[in-house]
Structures are given as C-alpha cells and as structure tokens.
Amino acid sequence: MYNFEFVKPATVDEAVAALQAEDAQPLSGGQTLIPTMKQRLNAPSTLVSLIGIDSLKGVSEAGGVLTIGAGTTHATVAAEAGAYPALAALAGGIGDPAVRNRGTIGGSLANNDPAACYPAAALGSGATVVTNTREIAIDDYFQGMFTTALEEGEIITAVKFPIPEKANYQKFEQPASRFALVGVFVAKTADGVRVAVTGASEEGVFRWTEAEAALSANFAPGAIEGLSASADGLIGDLHGTPAYRASLIKTLTKRAVTAA
C-alpha cells in the first residue's frame, strides 16, 4: 500500500466537497477498490469514505416501490428487503458473509463489474438510480464494462426498485469468487417481462429482448424453447466458451421463470 489521505464525511454535501480534491475517489464497501489499490492498479490520493453517512443507509417500501440507500450492505438488503423476495434472495447469495457485511448496493452499481449480481437485479427490475444531483433510469445508466452514466464527483444516494408481480434470479456461480459465470434476473410486471443477464457479456449486463417478448406473451418456460441467445460478444475464458455461456443464459432464464 502507499500513503493517501482519508476523509470520512458525515453528510452527502461534505462528501461531494471532499471529492473535489485531485485524484479523490469515493469508498463505500471497498470490496473492489481496496484490492485494486493493494495491487497498485489504482492509486487515489484521497479516499472519501461514505460509510459514515447515515442518510445513505436503510430499506423502505412505499407505493409498490422498494427504496434502498446506496450505503446499505448486502446483508441488510437480504434481511430487510422482504417486500421484494427475489432481490433479498439475490443479496443473500452475493460473495461470503464478510463480503455481504461490507459490500454495498451503491458501491456495486457504481463499479458495474461485468459479473456482479446487483446490475442484473436493477436492470431486470427497471430500477431508478438516485444520485446527489438527479435520477437516472436504469436503461440509461449502464454504459459498458465498469462504465456508467455517473459523472465525476457524482454519488449514488439510493436505488428505487418497482416491486414486480413475479421475479427470480438464477446464478451459475464461479465457485471460488462466487461471482456469476452467468446470472439471469427475470421480472414480470403489468407492463411485460424484463430479462437481464450478467456475467456473460464483454460489455457487461444486458437485456435479452427476444426472451422478454416471448415471455410477455406467455410467462412459461416453454415460451423460449425455440430461442437461442447469441454467443456474439460473450466472454470466453478458462471457465467457459461464449457458446457455453449462451447456453447457460437460456437454461437459467427457464429456471428463473419456473421459480418465479
């Protein structure tokens, strides 16, 4: 490790001000940032910790929308998001207890790891990302691997999840990291079905629109029997070929529909 300044503000305004420093970066759960700093892949001059900001924590439900503060840990989401069982179950399956008690939903969505679980939940739910300056529709938020619509110094303060009629998340995990080799989140609402896929694409999380159309017409596993997810642009590595991941997308989508 190397020398850096550490700031722990108590309010969002204080955090935004602290982030104006040169090479300053926000620190939430630190599950990605700290390891990259240890490996010298990231070298911020100032870390602005968000964990002391109480207004960024908590889970609440009103009017069919579940609102989760950006600083809420995975473990808290798993325990308190009972109004949205599929989301609570997803949070309970992230990493291990150490990760779940430190990692935060805001940190996960800001980092946008291509194999993370929360991006699939957010995209599949049609969520809204709330920041200190605006609200961003989830379809406009993800912009590629580790890339989002967040601007310099902008902080996620909460995420709003419309609670669907039915939903389920299925993950084929890499056993060492417990990241998704492929993960599929399916949500059925009065407006139709959304199918979000994580872990599979070189561009990060995406929607399988062909499956959405078929499942909106008939919400049953057999509705996508004749479909095949394209292997173009999917990840190929020692864990699986693009064709293998494409096959997993279809299999996990059918399992999610069955479970939902």
TrEMBL record:
Domain FAD-binding PCMH-type: 1-166
Enzymatic class: oxidoreductase
EC number, UniProt record: 1.2.99.2
Protein name: Carbon monoxide dehydrogenase medium chain
An annotated Gene Ontology molecular function: oxidoreductase activity
Pfam families (UniProt xref): FAD_binding_5
Key words, A-Z: FAD, Flavoprotein, Oxidoreductase
